[in-house]
Structures are given as structure tokens and as C-alpha cells.
Amino acid sequence: MAAPGDTYERELKALLTGDEKAVARMVKTCNAMETAAYNTMLREPFLVIRAAGSLGIDLVALRWDFSFPIEVKSSSDPVMHFSRSQRLVEQADTMLGECNRCHLVPIYAFRLKSFRGDPWRVFTIPSDHDYKGRHSVLYRRLPKLDVSSSGNYIMRWDDGMKLSDFLLYTGMNEYDTL
Predict the structure, then answer these.
(1) Rounded CA gap, 148 and 88, in Å?
(2) What tens digit of pLDDT does each residue of 36-56 get?
(3) Which of 11, 36, 120, 136 satisfies CB 3.0 to 4.6 Å to 131 for a cystine?
(4) Residue 32's CATH number
């Protein structure tokens, strides 16, 4: 039997790779704008690799214009406190360190269970790192995980960027007219 999080890792992987059945399932409860955004993956999919390491990275999404590591989280509670698990804190710190070393924006994808509409929200980890190129713009646009007064990360689903909005953003490029 698959681990509980595997279901949502596989769902996100299928969505980002433009799997027609996964996209059709997702958009059943989405509005027109969300549906249009998810449908962009049918035309401009990512190559998505499931990561096997313990760096706090579940998926790696690759495409000609963007590449980013993704940590997938799911919950029926819209707020996730990383302080509940030392492993979550260590994963986030390791992921941020590795991403900064390579100038990649770390992505957290948070799936709220039993939500109608776009159930995915994306975030990044706050950092003073100087990202380069398009990753710099991506980092500025993405909502950051909150940090508690004791320095622990908090992920509030309501504060995240809809995955559909993220897909629309990553689908925009100035190269179409060249």
C-alpha cells in the first residue's frame, strides 16, 4: 500500500506532466479560469521526476523555461505547523540550503483534502538569497511560508498561490513572438 502522501505526489506529477485524465479529473470542480490554467499543461507540460532522496524534495519539475524542486504536503487542516515535527524543520532547512546553492526556488505544494475547486496552493521558503533571472521574479511573486516568533515555519493554505495561478504565470513567456 502506498504511503498517504504518495497519492498527492502522484496527482501533482500527473497534473504537471499534462496527463489528460488527471487534468480532466482536477477541473471537474474548478471555475473557468482555473480550468484554462490546468489545460495549459496539455500544451506546455513539465518533465517531472519523483525524487527518492531525503532532501525534503518529492518532485523535480523541468521544462525549457523553468526548473524547480517541489515538496508536497497534504492535510485536511488548512494550517500546517512545521514545529510539530523536527523532521519537517530539517527538511525545509536542507531544501533551502541546496536550492540556494544552485539558485533554484524551492516550492512547497500544499493540497487541502476534500476541497472543491483548485485544492493546491504553492509557497516558497523565505530567504535573503539573491536568485538569478526568471527565478528571481518567480521568488518575488510566490507567497512565503510564515515564520513564527520562535523561528518555525507555518504554512497557511489560505495564504498560498493557487496552483492554477502558478501554472498561468509559468506559462507566460516573452519568447512566443520571437
Answers:
(1) 14
(2) 999 999 999 999 999 876 667
(3) 136
(4) 3.40.1350.10
